[in-house]
Design brief:
Strand content: under 5%
Oligomer: single chain
Mean pLDDT: 94
Number of helices: 5
Helix content: over 70%
Number of strands: 0
Low-confidence stretches: none
Shape: globular
Structural class: mainly alpha
Radius of gyration: 16 Å
Number of domains: 1
Distance between the termini: 15 Å
Order of helices and strands: HHHHH
Length: 128
Amino acid sequence: MLARIFLAAVGGLYAWLAWWCSVSPAETSQLVGFQLVGGSGRSEFLTVYGGLEAGMAAIFLMPLLRPALQSSALLNCTLIHLGLVAFRTAGFILFSDIQTMTMKLAAGEWVILILSGLLLWKAPKGKR
């Protein structure tokens, strides 16, 4: 039950981020230092920040409709956030002048990675 609540919260967060990035791309891109140059830049931001986050939201929210998918959603959540944390950490090492919003996103990604990993590790052996 705890894993389903966690996944619903993470899914809701990503659904909100997908919506926010899609309806306010100038504001959200500026907060993370991303420049929207021409139609290509705006299309890329809409696709990756709107579309990809909407897809992630769907993966994490799916156990609410199909409980049998909870373990795979939790595994996906852990793996996705492991990738995000690894690349975000590399970015922090390689680049300077990191904006506050980017640091907040990084903190959230770490929290989600740790909690999803713990929930996955605590899952019964047959449920992993």
